[in-house]
Amino acid sequence: MSKSIWGPKSVTFWLVGVITLLMLYLGVKGFIQPVAAIQGFGLPLHDTVDKNLVYIKADRDLFIGIFLFVLMILRMRKALLVAMLTSIMMPIIDATLVLTKAVDKTPSWIHIVSAVYGLVVGWMLYREERQDKTTTKN
């Protein structure tokens, strides 16, 4: 019932939209400019033959972007809540990889901010979901 209420009039809808657009951008960029994409990620590409590994990351990002977009279109707030909170592990692991494997640790902040952003948006979605549950019970 609450999914019909949730949509473009909600702040969380647009906050999820920001993540969705970012993931779609990162996915497309990874296929078009793999060397620049992996450098932006925070890890060097020592041999351009290894760009196939970047395509795996690009595929992951593109899938996440399309998945979030479909959930937004279907207005499935509860599914987005689950997706947001469970996917927080990805930027945490990404930040850990950059901090432990990269010479330049600076790009790790992007992953850390992404994890915090996902946590905040997930928490906001959770609050909205709970509020709608209590509103529909009364």
Give the overall form: elongated
Quaternary structure of the protein: single chain
Percent helix range: over 70%
How can the largest sheet be summarized?
none
Distance between the termini: 14 Å
Q: What is the average of the pLDDT values?
A: 93
Strand count = 0
The proportion of strand residues reads under 5%
Order of helices and strands: HHHHHH
Low-pLDDT regions: none
Query: Which structural class best describes the helix and strand composition?
Result: mainly alpha
Cα Rg = 17 Å
**SS field, number of helical segments:** 6
Key words describing this protein structure:
138 residues
Describe the structure.
There is one protein chain. The protein is 77% helix and 0% strand. The relative contact order is 0.16. It is elongated and about 60 Å long. It contains 6 helices and no strands. The protein has 138 residues and is mainly alpha-helical. The longest helix has 30 residues, at 108-137. The chain has helices at 11-32, 34-41, 51-73, 77-86, 89-101, 108-137.
Give the arrangement of secondary structure elements.
Blueprint lengths: L10 H22 L1 H8 L9 H23 L3 H10 L2 H13 L6 H30 L1
Helix pairs in contact: 1-2, 1-3, 1-6, 2-3, 4-6, 5-6
Write a brief structural summary.
This protein has 138 residues and is mostly helical. Helices cover 77% and strands 0% of the residues.
